[in-house]
Amino acid sequence: MKENKLDIYFAKSFLDKGELVAIPTETVYGLAANAFNKEAVEKIYELKKRPTNNPLIIHCHSIEQIEQFVTEIPKEAYELAKQFWPGPLTILLKKNDLIPDYVTAGSEYAAFRIPNHSLTLELLQQLDYPLVAPSANPSNRISPTKAIHVYDYFKSAIPYILDGGDCTEGIESTIVHFDEKNAKILRPGSITFQQLFYVIPSIAIDQEVQEKPIAPGLSKKHYSPITAFKVIDKIDLRSIIEYKSKFNKIAVITCKKEHVSIVEIDFYCYSENGDIDQIATNLYELLLSVDSKGYDLIISELAPEVGKGIAINNRLKRANNTNL
Ligand code: TXA
Ligand code: MG
Predict the structure, then answer these.
(1) What is the rounded CA–CA span in Å between residue 132 and residue 129?
(2) Can you list the residues of the chain whose pLDDT is less than 70?
(3) Ligand 1 pocket: which of 50, 175, 208 to mutate (most atoms <8 Å of CB)?
(4) Hey, is 81 helix, strand or coil?
(5) Peptide bond between residue 115 and the one before it cis (omega within 30 degrees of 0)
(6) Ligand 1-lining residues (CB < 6 angstroms)
(7) What is the pLDDT of residue 188?
(8) pLDDT tens digit string along 99-125?
């Protein structure tokens, strides 16, 4: 058997037995279980320490498979699906009775996504059920973009990690909600507002959700490093030197490489030249790595607030854990 086939065979056998398997996607690694196995789904909540009122995204291999689980797919949702699936887009659709309430935390809407990763797509095609998969991190921690990140979080508590290499997108999917007629963005993500707008000009960012989240996973605080983490609009040397008087070991992360050096401050960059896709791809990996180095304070610059920068800044602002 070819190596990939063997990996998928192992992943399938654990999932069939109701065990959890970490799966690669183009956005971040997911912690997957058979969506139709209640005990398996409960294991996800236990392991992540995730509040049970926070619903899970259902991962499928095709639009035809999703059609089996919903009452209808609005025309515009179809257009988005055709354009962006497989890919980093999650669409909320009215579910039918085949999707259990414990997957959606009781909501009549279920979140669906077809991930764009060849290993995971092949796995999904071989299963008789869809997979629920939140990001494979303990609740409120940074999402993993490498198999080793998942291992570092959970060690042997997950029986199998399907290693599909590094996640190419680096930030989570964009979530779009279709109620009676309107399309709204609930979570900014890898697919930008502009990309969605070309397909659905009436689409809006749900400001209400930004203020008062409908799901706990969308709440303001999230994705935090363990180290004190402060985001600022633009790196300004004066304020950094001021922080230096209050904290011993400081790391500063900029969006592109800056040729500055200050004694006893370590500088890192999300990308060499400020390329927004690169910043997204490297974001969580760099945060996880800098977080593990024992700094007293990490200061991060925000990205330009356009395109994918909106999703990047959404994550950075929610990672901010200090009132400095
Ligand atoms: O890119 C992604 O979306 C990754 C990969 C693994 O697919 N998954 C991911 O899952 O980010 P998670 O659980 O970390 O974030 C999913 C978000 C949560 O904020 C959750 O509250 C929301 O989606 N969500 C899921 N189902 C929902 C539903 N039925 N109604 C409203 N929000 C929902
Ligand atoms: Mg998550």
Answers:
(1) 10
(2) 1-3, 208-222
(3) 175
(4) helix
(5) no
(6) 25, 27-28, 30, 54-57, 88, 90, 92, 104, 107, 109-111, 113, 115, 133-135, 172-173, 175, 214-215, 217-218
(7) 95
(8) 999 999 999 999 999 999 999 999 999
